[in-house]
Design goal:
Length: 92
């Protein structure tokens, strides 16, 4: 139970800190930061794969698969948006 509370505490703090940081990003830095966030989501995919593979409980397996799917959607969608934005700067 103690580990769960610590995990919840870290999650809430990360959510609040992330919201504050993202809210202060100027539009000119949005694309480079989004590319960096895609790399972090790639790391999240690897972590979710490791945790899901070693899961002992069914609930952990299900949450791991959900995490893998959501992080994959984030990576693919982020790179698609980044590519479209960078295409605006290419000369014909």
């Amino acid at each position: 139970m103690g580990e769960m509370l610590i995990g919840l505490y870290v999650f809430v703090l990360a959510t609040v800190a992330g919201r504050e940081l993202i809210g202060k990003v100027p539009p000119t830095l949005h694309t480079p930061l989004m590319s960096g966030a895609n790399a972090i989501s790639g790391i999240a995919i690897v972590g979710a794969l490791v945790i899901t593979a070693s899961a002992e409980w069914r609930a952990v397996e299900v949450l791991g698969v959900v995490a893998i799917a959501m992080a994959t959607i984030n990576v693919v969608g982020g790179f698609m948006v980044t590519d479209r934005m960078l295409e605006m700067f290419r000369k014909d």
